[in-house]
Amino acid sequence: MRLGLIGLGRIGAFHAQTLADLPAVDSLVVTDAVPATTKEVAERVGAEPVDSVAELLSAGVDGVLVAAATDTHLELVLAGVDAGLPVFCEKPLARAVGDAAAVVRRVQESGVPVQVGYPRRFDPAFLAARAAVEGGELGGLHTVRSTTLDPAPPPAAYLAGSGGIFRDCAVHDFDAVRWVTGREVVEVYATGSDRGDPLYADIGDVHTAAAILTLDDGTLGVVSNSRGNPRGYDVRLELHGTADSAAAGLDDGLPLRSLEPGVTFPAGPPHGFFMDRLATAFRAELAAFADLVAGTRPSPCTAADALEVAYIAEAAALSLREHRPVRVEELRP
């Protein structure tokens, strides 16, 4: 199998190594807007460098992965689809939810499979959580808590163009809640704090956020996010039902310090960043894309799934601005 990878920044370079190590991938073609980056990554992972997206799409690839800047996702996904190539795209499909909806329509009309990058769907504990819900082990769910706490804020330039904490960070929690429960979010009530940092106030974002999600069967979701958690990268999911409770993310790398006398859990060291916390998930995610390209499985996270998550994020951002609950239906065309 011959795959093409567009964008070799932090996540793209990480994916390049993962793809190079996959048994199903015979050859890898890479490109980046910075030629020196293309050259460096290609030499490091043994890939074939090309100078442009057009050259990559015409290089005989069987599928293409988009890991370039967010503003390029719409154009690059559609270029791959128009070429008849299965596409993997890092979230989001597009910066604006209306553009994402247009991409979904084009993808559905084309019949070309698209997979969007939500790696928690491939984390072993999150998979077990979904299986526990589907198998009825927890009884009827009444509360789901999902957490993403980053160890440190991204660069100011990234924050200024990210669309805000709900669109670039909490979307992973929104997708996890929707996917694990198998339910749709119908209402969002969100709040946040800039912690007195003028950077966040100036760009209309917050440092720390919380959102209450009401699902279509009455289950409540509690989503917690922060730009700064000095102890480490914290990703967890709690499920509370009428028969049992369970959690994903309670391993020895959990970045929480217990104050109970004599308790040694977690043993540490804490997870430092998403690349170590979700390393297994990222490998499984790209292996799933290889299966998608080979035609042996459907997309495990479709463009339509990503659009639903985008609507939830838009509802959260609107709720934060207007200090009120927002029905997701308000955001649909």
Residue share in helix: 25-40%
Determine and state the CATH class of the largest domain. Answer: Alpha Beta
What separation lies between the terminal Cα atoms? 39 Å
Number of domains: 2
Fraction of residues in β-strands: 15-25%
Mean pLDDT level: 96
Give me the count of strands. 13
The shape is globular
Walk me through what this model shows.
A 7-stranded mixed β-sheet has the order 12-11-7-10-9-8-13. It is globular, with a radius of gyration of 20 Å. 39% of the residues lie in helices and 21% in strands. Helix 4 (73-82) runs parallel beside helix 5 and helix 6 packs parallel to helix 9 (171-181). By secondary structure, the protein is α/β, with parallel strands linked by helices. Strand 11 and strand 12 form a beta hairpin. The protein folds into 2 domains: 2-118 and 283-302, Rossmann fold (3-Layer(aba) Sandwich); 121-278 and 309-331, Dihydrodipicolinate Reductase, domain 2 (2-Layer Sandwich), CATH 3.30.360.10. It has 13 helices and 13 strands. Residues 126-245 form the GFO/IDH/MocA-like oxidoreductase domain. Residues 2-118 form the Gfo/Idh/MocA-like oxidoreductase N-terminal domain.
Key structural traits:
333 residues; alpha/beta; Rossmann fold; Dihydrodipicolinate Reductase, domain 2; 2 domains; 7-stranded mixed beta sheet; 6-stranded parallel beta sheet; 13 helices; 13 strands; 21% strand; globular; Myo-inositol 2-dehydrogenase/D-chiro-inositol 1-dehydrogenase
